Amino acid sequence: MTVMVQCYGIFWLMTSIASLKMVMDRLGSAEDDEAQKEQRDELEAMGKMFSGEFISRMFIMIGALLLVFDCVGLFLAYQYVEFRPWQLAVFYISIAALTGDLAHNIYRYRGLRAEGADVSAILTESIDDLTSGWNILTLIAIGGKLILGVLLVLWTVFPY
């Protein structure tokens, strides 16, 4: 059983690293960066090709799967890691940041379902919003998951 938890912890750690890399690349790029323009063009094309309701449904399904994946990781960390006080603080801060980030994403994309919504503008808003304070909340959630993933792997490999 511990081997499965180790594998899950390693996979959770790798996905957290990939998420952190994507967010840092997005925040570190300039507005006139070629990759940023390419992403903006892809989102505009997606907004023109699909309806807002379809995109909203797709985001909800992907977000729910990622949330379940993170909740299982948080549950396993709570079960297998003997937290120090600062680690327990990271655990609760991560849960709060993940919840806040989820609520912000739901609030941001709620307009996709409205009739006559400018789907391309709503989608590209997240790419253009580089100076928002919500990005810090996203970084806190991902950073906390990263630390908890490391703790989960270390506590299952070296239990005592």
Task: Indicate the structural class.
Answer: mainly alpha
**How far apart are the first and last residues' alpha carbons, in Å?**
17 Å
Rg from Cα: 18 Å
The poorly predicted ranges are none
Q: Kindly report the average pLDDT value.
A: 85
Q: What's the main sheet like?
A: none
Number of helices: 6
Query: Which of globular, elongated, flat, extended, rod-shaped describes the shape?
Result: elongated
Strand content range: under 5%
Strand tally, please?
0
H-E order: HHHHHH
Overall helicity = over 70%
Question: How would you describe this structure to a colleague?
Answer:
81% of the residues lie in helices and 0% in strands. It is mainly α. The mean pLDDT is 85.
Descriptors for this entry?
single chain; 160 residues; mainly alpha; 81% helix
Secondary structure elements and pairings:
Elements: H1 2-28, H2 34-49, H3 52-80, H4 85-108, H5 119-128, H6 134-157
